[in-house]
Structures are given as structure tokens and as C-alpha cells.
Amino acid sequence: MPIIQIDLPQVGESVTQAILEKWLKQVGDHVEKYEPLAEIVTDKVSMEMPCPVNGVLTSLLVDPGTTVPMGDPIAQFEVTTEEQASNNPSAEVADLTVPDRIGSMDLTVTNVGPTGSGGPITTGTDPKEASRQRYSPAVLRLAQEHNLDLSSVVGTGISGRITRKDVQAHINENRSPKPIPHEPESSDQIVPLTAVRRMIADNMVRSTTQIPEAWMTQEVDVTNIVTLRDRCKDEFEQQHGVRLTPLAFALKAVSEALQTNPMVNSVWSDNGIILKKQINISIAVASPKGLLVPVMHGVDHLDVAGIAKAISSLASKALNDQLGVEDVQGGTFTVNNTGALGSTMGKGIINHPQAAILNTEAITKRPVVIGESIAIRSMMNICLTFDHRIIDGAEAGSFVSAVKQWLEAIDPDFRS
């Protein structure tokens, strides 16, 4: 029976790597197709990876806790000829790489031992030479961008295969001074880094090093929203089954402002600025596993009640570790409700590769000058952090002002 290779599948837009947190099967197990094989974690979601075939797991190529580029091999299976034929009935068994819905399987490899230490996977070819013949497009592109000779890179993949991670590590090592490790003192406590925390760290560094950001803030008078919510929150919860929060109004205001300020709903690329036609708002949610950013799709087609229901659903999934891939894909703009944590002023880090993020802060009562009088009003600060390659100050100001105007125009008798 042939041995096939399982690769780590692409699990989300703009996700280039994931941490294989835990194997759910062991070498020697017979695994059914679509049965959970491993737990993987990205900066957006923690999820179970289904097995793409029926077969016996013969080798685990990646240790738990390892960061793996998308498309890299992670396991090998022994499958029957019938299983292989069902994936590609017209193909010759030994000559093709068969695509599957969650990865690709290389049918040209030979068997290895249960720990992956049975020698080179390819036959008749020097392993290092074989790896040079199998550079992935991502590896070649990154090497070309940095004018790098790949023969100088040490591969850590199967049989010395060079991965994108190897190329990036080589580039970083040669352009940056060696960091000085911080040695803990005897009285210090070391908190182990979770997979989610590592991915958050990587994504934050990528955002702050690749995006030239700027920011601006405005204060918004949300007195009418507070009045409306206090008056009808009980009725709203009875009718819709969810709480009515100021965040629902803020997301509606953002979706309206994005429609009139399309540059804010975009992504930078070397070929041009990509204007996103869909308005899918990512929402930062604190969970037991760390910060997660589920996506609310088609916000421009929802009213305030629909948005409130979507917020409740995504928050519940995040808190109960039930987010699926579909819940974290396709975000075009992010709202970070730091006001829920008591913050009154702050700026967010852009959710790469989006163009901007809006912080909504805590609502506080403050004295405000209205005409010639001073009144006590419910005020909220909003802060936009934006990619200055895409958005200039005038465009950012127009967007923030549009959000402010929509929120302040709410009538206390407003109905969702």
C-alpha cells in the first residue's frame, strides 16, 4: 500500500503559518477520513484539522508546539489503492500529487519509520539535492525579493527541504544584531508562552514593522444612545434574546462610514490598493486562550438588532472555543472595544493586512459646552489607527467624522 504525505492546509486569508499544538492520533492508529487529526492554532483561531484520507498513520513529521508554514508536510499515511483512486480515479498511483480539500498528498514518497527517522523520503537522489528541486513558490519568491542564494540556507524540512520559515530566519539572522537573552533572576516566575500568545506576538510584530501607521481621535456625544438603551434594553432583550449594547450602534456607524469612505476598507499590495467590496468587520474578543478576532460578515446588510445578535453569537463561540475557520476569514476592518475594559483613551495595532482599526472607549459623563451653556453629557472617545501608505489624514478624518455624526444623530426614539 502506498505511503502519502499530508501537508498543513491553508486555514485562513493572510495566514502563512500555524502552530501544531497537539496531535489527536498516534503512529499506528487507523484514522477515518474527516476524523480530527490534530489541533492547530493561528493568530486568528484554534481548530481541529480533519484527516483527508482513510488510512494508517505511519509517521508524525512535526512535534507538538512547532510553528509550521502553510503547505509544509506534517504527517504520512499508509492508504489503500482504493482510497487513493477515490481521490484521483484516472491517475496512476505512483506518479501524481493528489489534491484534497484540506491539503495535498505527495504519492511519490517512500515509507519511513514511525518516528520519521527511517532515512530520506526520496529514493535514488541525494536528499539535499532533492530539496533544491522542490523549492516552493513561497520560498523562491522570498529568496528573489532579498536576492538570496538558497544554497546558503540550511533547510529544516523533511530531508533537508528548505521552508519559507528557514529563508526568513536566514534573512533575519544576517540583517539584525543578535538579541541579548534576558536571564531571569531566582525570584522571577516564568509564565510559559501558549501557542496563541506566540501567534499574537508574531502578528503584532509583523503589523508594527510592516505598516507605517498614524492615528487620530475624536470624542463623540453618545447621550442619546445611552438614553435610548436605558429606555428599551429590557424590551429589546425580550424581543431579540440578546443584550443591546453601545457596541452594536458603533458597528452600525462604522459600516455606514465605510460605505462612504472605501479607502478605509482596503488592503495594501505592491500591485495597487485593493478596495474591498464586502464590509466584514473583525471584532477583538478576549478569551481564555488569548485575544481572538472573529469576523462579522456583511455588516452593511444588518440593522442594529441583527448586529447585536451577531456580536452575541461570535462572542459566545470565542469564549467557548467554538470558532470555525469561516468565523475568522475575510475581515476587512477591525473594531476593538477597549471601553469594555475601562479604557478611556488608546490606539490599537492594525490587524494585518487590513488598512485600519478603530478603538471604541468607555462612556463617561463629562461637562460639555453646548452653545453658551455647560451640560453633563455621556461622552465616548474613538481612535482610528490607519496605514499611512493607503490613507491620508484627510481621508482618516472624513471617516472618523462620519462615525461620529452617525452616532450623534441617533434619536432617543430610534428603532432598530
Describe the structure.
The chain folds into three domains: 3-119, RNA polymerase II/Efflux pump adaptor protein, barrel-sandwich hybrid domain (OB fold (Dihydrolipoamide Acetyltransferase, E2P), Beta Barrel), CATH 2.40.50.100; 129-175, E3-binding domain (Dihydrolipoamide Transferase); 197-408, Chloramphenicol acetyltransferase-like domain (Chloramphenicol Acetyltransferase). It is 28% helix and 25% strand. It has helices at residues 81-87, 127-133, 137-145, 164-175, 195-210, 223-240, 246-260, 304-319, 393-408, and strands spanning 3-7, 17-23, 30-31, 36-41, 46-50, 55-60, 66-69, 73-78, 97-100, 103-106, 213-221, 266-267, 274-275, 281-283, 285-287, 290-292, 295-296, 333-336, 356-360, 364-370, 373-387. Strand 4 and strand 5 (46-50) form a beta hairpin. Helix 7 (246-260) crosses helix 8. It starts with a strand and ends in an 8-residue tail after the last helix.
The main pleated sheet reads as: 7 strands, mixed
Q: Can you tell me the overall shape?
A: globular
What's the total count of β strands?
Answer: 21
N-to-C SSE string, H for helix and E for strand:
EEEEEEEEHEEHHHHEHHEEEEEEHEEEEH
CATH topology of the largest domain: Chloramphenicol Acetyltransferase
Beta-strand content bin: 25-35%
Q: Identify the CATH homologous superfamily of the largest domain.
A: Chloramphenicol acetyltransferase-like domain
Any guess at the CATH architecture of the largest domain?
Answer: 2-Layer Sandwich
Q: List the total number of helices.
A: 9
Radius of gyration: 25 Å
Indicate the CATH class of the largest domain. Answer: Alpha Beta
Oligomer: single chain
Low-pLDDT sequence parts = 87-133
Number of domains: 3
Spatial separation of the terminal alpha carbons: 61 Å
Task: Let me know the average pLDDT.
Answer: 82
How much helix, percentage-wise, in residues?
25-40%
Query: What structural class should be given to the helix and strand makeup?
Result: alpha+beta
